Amino acid sequence: MILNSIFTNQRTGNHPQNIVSRTDFQRDFDRIIFSSAFRRLQNKTQVFPLPGSVFVHNRLTHSLEVSSVGRSLGSAIGEFIVKDFEKDLNDDSKNFYQHNLHNVIAAACLCHDVGNPAFGHSGEDAIASYFDKNEKDLKPKFSEKEWADLVNFEGNANAIRVLTNRQNGKDEGGTQLTFSTLAGIAKYPCEALAKQKGTIHRKKFGFFQNEKETFLQVAQSVNLIRESSEPVIFKRHPFVWLVEAADDICYNIIDMEDAHRLGIVSTSDCENLFFELIKSENQNTKRVEDKLAILTNANERISYLRAKVINALINNSLEIYRQNFDQILNGTLDQALLDIYKSENKSLQEIESFSIEKIYGHKAVVEIENAGYNVMYELLDHFIPSVLKAKTERKSYDKMALKLLPNQFLYEDGTDYQKVLGIIDFVSGMTDNFATDLYRKIKGIDIGMTM
């Protein structure tokens, strides 16, 4: 039975298992919490510019909330699997699904954004565009597959690298997470050349060539269904759908709440959109109305409705997962859980349309995306030409540029591809503030000694 063979406590780095009070999957969660890559998310843009006088979500608070939703989804599905497939499960599997699936989903949700650069999606676009705009000079230095990685830079693939790559001077295996958790964040389990719009598991790509062997090891250990060997394509792992649903639930709703706190969306618009979704679920609207009658604070009213909406979306995602469980296991489901629900629910469609028009197109959001794009692009342009030059050909300004790089990001004995990935590691790992400060310094906008 496939359910007995899609999880493992094997982790990167090949370290022996220790007997500790925590399970291996709880240790994954803790390792992510204490990792520097996760901490840096506190100063990476989710949607709205940071910092500000009004508390809005950053990548870290978003990831914590996604993890909370993911834990609920994992717990409920674990109970469902144990109840409905008890005769097919061995003792280890029963224990895993009942007591540890929620830990795996929570951990995967926690780290799903660690590969995202500063400034939201504009940071991703800047990195990909840098190589696209410099194709004539740069493309000949890389293989076809390496070039595809660079010109299609993707935060999901970068997350696998951040979590598994061994940097100079650091331990083997990166964060050393279990393969079960790593499989849970692989929304697009294919290499860059296999990208295909309109195909859910190939919309983007999931790993760089440098981490290909690691990903193949993960895929084998959790028995991913192989679709193609050349190029490498796998079907999604069953856990991915829950991680994706948790993320979709949070950003669809929380962005609206943030926009309300910032005054971009009126209280009436936000309340009406949330209330209509609650009403569409045939929930006890009288109880909701009675609660709202007590709450006079606008932010508190929106927070209450947000909680009710998220609860409704969790319940619907669980039901859709159960209904499509066979397709999920055999890799034939072709829509995200929330997209299936959205296609049947006009209220969620209206929330999405409203968000695109009023939130994601707002001037403040567009300004930070433009600024972030330029900052990230210029930082790459400062380092990449220098690192690609042979040591004997580097001018003094090349040497000075590379002195700004911490040693763990310098792969002087590696290939051009590995050298460039080192630069991308440095730049994509920056927080919004660090990237902006460094940009201003190297451009001469801010001059002076800072520590």
UniProtKB/TrEMBL annotation:
Annotated HD domain residues: 59-252
GO biological process entries: dGTP catabolic process
Keyword Translocase found: no
Keywords: Hydrolase
SMART domains hit by this protein: HDc
CDD domains given in the database record: HDc (cd00077)
Example of a GO MF term: dGTPase activity
Name of this protein: Deoxyguanosinetriphosphate triphosphohydrolase
Species of origin: Chryseobacterium koreense CCUG 49689
Lineage: Bacteria, Pseudomonadati, Bacteroidota, Flavobacteriia, Flavobacteriales
